[in-house]
Design brief:
Length: 78
């Protein structure tokens, strides 16, 4: 690190610095907290869709599987 540079530069994710400020903006614009997040983090929706997709695939795979559950208990799937 060169002189004058900080070790960790923190970049604020949102323009408002307190939850009270965020809630005030939400009230003024008739937004939910999710609306506020979506407005300021454009890359979050695709990430959440990816998570939901993986969760659904995992659930479907688990429901399709037959036999015993993995592990030492040898417990049958229902």
């Amino acid at each position: 690190i060169e002189e004058g540079q900080g070790r960790n530069e923190v970049v604020a994710a949102y323009p408002d610095s307190t939850m009270a400020d965020i809630l005030k903006v939400c009230e003024e614009k008739n937004w939910t907290l999710a609306d506020y997040v979506y407005e300021h983090e454009s890359d979050i929706k695709p990430y959440l869709v990816e998570i939901l997709t993986v969760m659904r695939e995992t659930l479907e795979n688990g429901l399709k599987a037959e036999g015993n559950l993995p592990g030492k208990l040898n417990y049958p799937r229902r």
